[in-house]
Structures are given as structure tokens and as C-alpha cells.
Amino acid sequence: MNARFLRRVLMLLATILLVHAAAFFLMRTTRGGPFDEARALDPQVKLALEQRYGLDDSLAVQYWHALTGLWQGDFGPSLRYREVSVADLLADALPVSFAVGGGALLWGLLFGIPLGMIAAGARRRLLGQSATTLATVLLALPNFVLAGAAIALFSFTLGWLPPAGTGGLAHLFLPSLCLGLPLAAQISLLVRDAASERWQSAGVRHARALGLSGQRLWWAHILKPSLTPVLAFLGPATAAVLTGSLVIERIFALPGLGTFFVEAALNRDYTLALGVTVVYTALLGLATFLADVLLMKLDPRVEALS
Amino acid sequence: MRPRCLLALLLLFLAAASCGPPRAALTVANGPDLDTLDPQLARSSAAQRASRALFAGLTRLDPQDLGLLPDLALSWTAEDMARLWRFQLRPDLRWSDGQALTAQDVVASWQRLQDPATAAPYASWVAEARFAAPSPTEVHIRFPEPQPLFPLLCSHPALAPVPPALRDSPQGTLPKPLPSSGPFYLLERRLRDRLRLLRNPHYWRSEEVPSKSLDLLTIDSDITAMNLFLTDGVAFTPKTPDLALPRLVEQQDARLHQSAELGTVFLRFQQRDAPFDDFDLRRALVWGTDREALATLVGHGRPAATGFVPTSMPAWTGPSWPSSELEQARAALERVRQRNQGALPRIELLYPSTAGNRLMVEALAALWKKDLGLEVRLMNVEARTFYPAQSALEYQVSLSSWVADYPHALSFLDIFRSHDANNRSGFADARYDELLALAASTLDEQERQQALQQAEEILRDQAALLPLLEQRRQELVSPRLGGWQDNALGIIDWAALEWREAP
Amino acid sequence: MSLWAKRLAWGFLAALTIAAVVAPWLPIVDYRAMDADARLLPPGSEGHLLGTDAQGRDLLARLLFGARISLLVGAVGTLVAMLIGLPYGAVAGLRGGRIDRFLMRLADALESVPMVVMVLFLLSILREYRVEMEVIGFGRLQLFLVAIGFLFWLPTARVARAESLRISRLPFVTAARLQGMSTRAQLRRHILPNLWPTLRVMWLLTIPRVILMEAFLSFLGLGVEAPAVSWGGLASDGLAAMNPLVASWWLLALPSAALVLTLLALQQVGRGEDGST
Prior knowledge:
The complex is a heterotrimer of chains A (306), B (503) and C (277). By secondary structure, chain A is mainly alpha-helical. Chain A has a single domain, classed as MetI-like fold (Orthogonal Bundle), CATH 1.10.3720.10. Chain A has 13 helices and no strands. In chain A, helix 4 runs antiparallel to helix 5 (126-140) and helix 11 packs antiparallel against helix 12 (270-298). Chain B is an alpha+beta fold and 503 residues long. Chain B has two domains: 26-230 and 478-499, Periplasmic binding protein-like II (D-Maltodextrin-Binding Protein, domain 2, 3-Layer(aba) Sandwich); 263-473, Dipeptide-binding Protein, domain 3 (Roll), CATH 3.10.105.10. In chain B, 31% of the residues lie in helices and 21% in strands. Chain B is built from 15 helices and 18 strands. Chain B has helices at residues 2-18, 45-54, 103-114, 150-153, 164-168, 222-230, 245-250, 279-288, 291-298, 326-339, 355-372, 383-391, 410-413, 430-441, 445-461; strands spanning 26-29, 59-61, 68-70, 73-79, 84-89, 130-135, 138-142, 184-190, 194-199, 213-217, 236-237, 256-269, 347-352, 376-381, 397-403, 465-477, 481-482, 498-499. In chain B, the strands form five sheets. A six-stranded mixed beta sheet of chain B has the order 11-16-12-15-13-14, sandwiched between helices. In chain B, strand 2 (59-61) and strand 3 form a beta hairpin. In chain B, helix 8 (279-288) packs antiparallel against helix 10, helix 9 runs antiparallel to helix 11 and helix 14 runs antiparallel to helix 15. Chain C is mainly α and 277 residues long. Chain C has one domain (3-273): Orthogonal Bundle (MetI-like fold). Chain C has eleven helices and no strands. Chain C is elongated. The relative contact order of chain C is 0.15. Classes of the chains: A mainly alpha (306), B alpha+beta (503), C mainly alpha (277).
């Protein structure tokens, strides 16, 4: 276990290095720089700025600086937000993203598992098929449409919730719902497939033949084992959801992390883009690892297989 | 057990995120996030709006008619053909932390602005000036050339004095707290969320400021800002979504404030190289573009431009440009065709990708096709790719816009001087440069206006660019927002605004 | 249920594809033509069955031409993804060991690079060489298709790897290997043909994701080049319609409905005979 743990950590570090390098060189070979704007800067001013941020060094030197920064856990100053370091930006944005993403995970599990069970349990009836269709529709809607519809319903028609902004739990409700619904749809499809399979498995047929039915059958023999694929899926999904979504953050005016993945690249904020990339990679590694550990606890066969 | 742990953790996150700040006395949407709080570095209109709430200049503009008013300075006089300006500061000025604000602060601030290490975008305004502070309330500034418009520039946030703490803090950092000199001071900056400002008791007219606190919200999307506005979440939004405009206009909704903006949307021709080094081709487009039709289709309340400098410019009467003179345009195009062995060159229109720009170029392409039989290829690139390409003249025609820094035609025509960094078109004309140099230095306002008019005539006669639309400020202003004034520069007098109880 | 649902879905997709293909010859208005006198007409207006947008452009025509782009982006983008992902994954799965680990680690790393960094890089590279590309008939749209396909090769590679791993352990492949068959020959003779059924499903399931990605890029303003339209672009343009001030609901509702119906049909078609996805 320990050796494997160590190996995974090393693998994660190697991945981070690779991602860091890939992101750095991809960005730096893309046309345009952080100080190219509608209103041209005086060439001298631009030069001074580039010198301040070390953008006038050779690419190799800059990469070396980025690498040593990474080693020291210092991503440097943001190029877009003049007085703010990348660390500050991340520290401000992460709690918001975690709150919305956490809420989305809750919604995803809360809706997804029952929906999947309904779809599996009643799969030959209209109810089950409607559940499947609902999930598919949720997956097919672009999330900006979903968010727009949610705002139209809850903020304008019913007037229950604020349409955007920060300030309290009420402000988190809609964004986390809109982020969580597609997640719920995916979870429900996974649960449905697994539960259907379980339903037809020898074990369950045996249990039914023995007269087991109702709650116990569903709970112990069908639901619990059906959660294995959900857990495997939740690893990467958690990382994705916790790092936020540009569309949701823009529509609900939330200062989360998701916007950075897009804006940093669009603004050529190299340091920030590298920062969020590394954070995302680390989160992804961590979440996958946790999911694997949980998976092993739940189903010891997994360890034997891998 | 584990799922329960996870659940508890999630609830904890939710709880942590749910404690937000109490509502401010006045909350407004301030557009996309500020790149900086340093007034000397501010470029975006959002940053400049915030700067004006925090920092007072020596002068300020009357939000009603853009006339020049005293602010930190009581009075000013010019000497030596406006090469030397003397400002008399108000006595007993203070920063928001109670420290005295003296002439020495002004001088040190301008020296900081001048310093190349500051990398201030407006450094050129005081590039070759020398300063002195003969007494704590007197500032002298001397230029090698006459600077008749300098007091006007002093109303711009870039020339506002900055506090010692900011001047002393290392490059790229902000002191905490940040003392200020304007109607408000900074309580808290929540990145990409809001600026929370409180009334500055040391501002010289702080008794007139009705709002105790002010929140400037960061909102990237104009649709989101409108949604918040409609639910009374904000009292003001700087931009109305295009799709909402027809209905607002049709219903004569009083919440929509449309006012002139000192800006023009235009096309730059890259006239150094083929095909637009061909005068006839440029002229065909300048003559053959139906600007009225364009304004009807995609103007959303913005009128057709009648020239490069917008008609809303104070004291400006510019030369009139031809519009939709199709016969002449077709004739010019025919000459191009003959010179090109019977074929028209392939034209590519470069534009920065936003939804509004896309509509504009689509309409242009449709109009040119209909009126001139001219095919044009559209090519969008995101902004950070667009501007370097434009600067490097790697385009044929490109969509552009310009907004004045200060209410004078000079702020417009300046950019087409041969070596101006914003020229970006390859246009170069010695006579034009002479006229601009004259306009910048003459003391006679009439002579300046004449020189500038002649300069614009040169632009027109050479078909150096194609003006399309005049910008409009399209703000949503709540009827509950007291003290509001529309004006062409979008200057908000934060000291006058007040959120009133619903009637 | 699945049989008739599947037939319905096939029928819908076929009709849509035919309509999209023949759209330029249909007696409908030019989808680019603006008309100042016919702005924001609701559906059912005379001459504009599905209404018009703020510039008076016919929404039906725009939806039909949008179908051309969205379906093209979906189908070709996915194809590009498969052309890259398939050999990559198949080689990784077949060779196994160190090569497999290296290839998959590289794929992991690329997957962590923010998508927009990738998009901007690809678009910028492709733009740099656009003159050369045009010589071989590669226009802007084609470049966009390649770029968007490039974003999706990783999932394809993963599936291809898992499948080829499974296939390579089947007795007949092992036998071939033991007889000294070269990797290339194994790939061509055994692995690739047997990958086909999985890929068919994978292809159908990836199309919706590619179409949604195009919608997202349109939301960012990085979508297909105007005057071409896509459903995602139309929907994101109509987003402002979701509030009481803008009553033009059709600008959002109709493109969204087109997207949802198509993606539903694709999912229905891609579903296995047993109803699994």
C-alpha cells in the first residue's frame, strides 16, 4: 500500500510537471501578449512592463523561472490584475468555487441516484423511460440555456431567488443547481445501467427466488453495488466541478475559479493560467486518488484487478 | 461513515460561503473586473469609474455639461504661453487617513507618473514636464511646449495625486489600507466580486456626499447586470444588452438612459500595402457604404457617423463625409477592377470577436454585397491576437473604435499622426502631422479648431478611414437613483449619488 | 420501447440531415439577409414561419443553415478526434508496458491543460499557416473542424486503448503474436477491425459533446466564422431573451429545442440493443 501510495504521488508530480510545461509552451507560442490592447501602450511603457515581469528574457529563461516558482509554490504576480499575486487570486476564488461545486455535487447525488434507481426499477414503464429522457435532455442542453431558464423561473417568475451575485446561501442555490443538474443526469445514467445489470444478475435473482424483496433487496443488493461506477466517475467529476465553470460563473457573476481557465488564456495572463492549471491537475490527481481509495473499501476486488 | 463525512464537509463549505457582507447604501454594477486600483495605471472604463470614486483630481468636469470645475485646486493660471501652469490648492486638504495632502504630494505623484518604471499608460501627458512646490498649497508645472489644455487633463484620474503609501510601495503592490482623496475610501476589495467603499470624511466636500457606503460590483456579462438591475440588485449598469434595446426604446422606458458618447466606430484601411494602397478602392468603400442602413440594422440606437470626430464633441463642427453615393463608388470600383485585370481583389475584414462586432461586420458584408456587388471575407480573432495584428499592419480592413480621453477633437485626430502608436493603418501625411502639431500648441482655440477641421478634411479626402457609427452610452439607471447626470464622457459624480426609498 | 424510439430517432436524423444538405436549394429566404422592416417578428408571422431576429433575419433559414454547421462540426469534429485517438489508443493498448504507460501519462497531462489554452493555441497555429492551408483547400471552417476535433481525441484514445487491450488478449490475437506477426500487421488485421463496433457507438456519443463544445465556444465568441451560424451560436445570441424585458423567447427556445431534439435522437441511436448507453 505504502509503495503504491508513493508511486502515485510521484506520478502525480510528474504529471504536474508535464502539464505545466505543456501549458507554458502552448501559451507562449500563441500569438499576442498580455499588454496588447485596444489603446496601444507607449512602446517604452510596454517595454518597461515586459521587463518588470521578465517577459523580455528568452523563453528558456522564463521557463526556468516558472519552474523554480512552481518548486517554491510561488506562481508570481498576475499579469492582468496588477497589484495581485496569483496566489491571492486563487485563495479568493477557491472557496467560492468549492462552495458552488460542493453544492453541485450534493444536487448531483441527491437527484442523480434516485433518478437512476427509478429509471432502472421502472425501466419498462413510462415512469422509468421519462426518467431516462429527462436525464438525456439535461445532458443535451447547453448549460447557458439551463442557467437562463433557471433564472427566468426562480428569479423573475417566482421571485424567490436573486438572479446573480454573492452574499448568502440564496445566491448559491441557482448556480449550484445549474452546475449540478448535468452531473445528476450523468450519475443517474450510470446508476441506471449498473442497477439494471444487478437486477438481472444471478445474485439478485437468487435473492428474489428466496423471497427477499422490498427495501432490503433494493438497498443491499442493488443500490449499494451500483454506486461503484458512480464513485469511479466522481473522482474526475469532483475535480471538474470544484474548479468551477466559466458559463455558470459569468451568468451568475460569481468570483470563482472557472472563469480563470478561460480568461487567463484570453488575457494572456501566463502566470495565472499556469497557476490554475497546476491547481486543477493537483485536484484531479487528489480526487481520483480518493475515489480509488473509497472504491477499494467498497469493493475489495478492485485492488486485486488493478 | 464516509459519505456522512463528505456531506458534513460540503455543508461546511456552504456555510462558509454563505456569510456575505451586508448591503451597501448604494450598489451599482461596474462592468468587468478592474485591472488595477492605481489611478495612474487605470485604463479600462471600469477602473476609471472606480478611480473617480476614490481619487480627486486638481480639477473635475461638471457631470452636466463637462465644463471645467475646481476640485482639489482652488484656481489655476497660465504663464509663458501656457508653458507654465500654477495651481493653487485648497487649504487643509487631507487624505482619508487624516494625513495632510500637500503640493508636495502632487509633485511626487506626477514624478511617479513620469517615471518609466511606473509604466503608466498616460505618462506621455507629463513626459517632459518639470514640477515644483513652492509652498504647501502651490504647484508649478513647466512644459517645454505650450500645453493650453493641461487643466482639462487634470480632471483625468491619471493626473490625480496618489497617496504617499502608494508611491512608496514597491512596483506592482498596493498598500493596505489604501488612503484616498476623493468622496470615498476603500474598505475592502473582493477580487472579481466587488469593491466596498465608505464615505471619506476628509474629502473637502464630504458633507455633500449622501451615501454612507458604496458597492461597485464586478459583472462581466451585461445580461447578468440587467437581470440584477431588474430585481433592484443594482441601481445602475454601464451597458444594456443589445437584444433588450428595441423593446426598451419602443416602450420609452425611462430607465434606459441613452446619451452621446465621445466615441466612433470605424474601419481602418491598411493603406501601406495592396489592395488598400489603392485610393479608388478606399474611396469606393467610403462613398459606397450606406451608414444610415447600417445604423438601422445594427446601430441599436447608435446613429450613423457623419465623420471621424463624433458630432457630440463639444465645440466641434467637422467636415461632412460622403455617404452612400453609390454611382461614384461603383465607378471607383470599376477603375479598381480594370487595373486588376477585370477582377476585384479579395478583401478580408478582420475584427475582434464579440457578439456585437460580429453583427456589425455581418451587416457591412450584406450591405456591400447588395450595393456594390463586393464580396468580403470576415475573419474574427480574439482581442489579444487582434491588436498586435492591427499594430503590425497584418490586415486589410479592420473594425475599430475610439473613445476620447478628454472632451476635445484633439483626443481623436491625434491618433492618425504618422508615428502615433494608435495609428495602426499606415496612414502618413506630412501636412496632417503639421496641422496636429499646430493644434496641440496654439493658444488660440479658434485656430486649433480650424487646424483640426483641416486635418479631418485630409482624412476624408484621402479616404483614410471609414467612419461607421457614433457610440452611444446606453445605461440602465434606476428611478430610485438620485443625483444622476447623463454626459458624453460617462463621468459619474459619485459624490452626488443616492439610493432613495421606493415611493 | 426502444425499437420504435430508435426508428423515430433515425428518421428524425435522416430528415434533418437531408434538410441541411439541400438547404441552399430550398425556397427559403437567404439566412444572411437583413431586413430593417421585419425585426423581432414572433413565430407564425407572414413569410417568417419561425419569426426573425433583431436584424430581421429569418430564423427558420438560420436554423436550417445552422443545422449544416452544427451537424458538420459534430460529425467531422468527431471523425478527426477518432482519426487521432484511435491509432494512439490502439498502439498503447497493444504494446502495453512502458509505451502504454508513457502514452497514457502524456494523455493525462494533455487532458489537464485548460481547454481554452488548447483552443487558442490551435487556432493561432492554424491561422499562422492559413495561406499555405488555403492552397490545399483548407479554409477557415475546415481549420475550425480540425481544432475542435483535436480537443476530443483523448477520450477516444482511452476507449480505443481499453478495447484493444481486451482484444489483444483474445486467443486468436495471442496466437498471431506468438507466430511472430508484427505489431503493425496485428493492428491492421485484428485490432482495428474488431474495434469497429465500439467505435460506432463512441462516434455517435461523441457527436453531441462536440456540438455542445461548439456551443460553448460560440458563447465565448470563438465559434465558427460569420456569416455562418450554428445552433449553439444562435442559442447563445438568444440568451438575453430570458428576462421580462426581452420578450423574444423564440430566439433562445427554438435553437435550444433543435439542439436538444438532435442530441436526444443521437443518444437514442447510439444506444445498444439492450438499452445501455
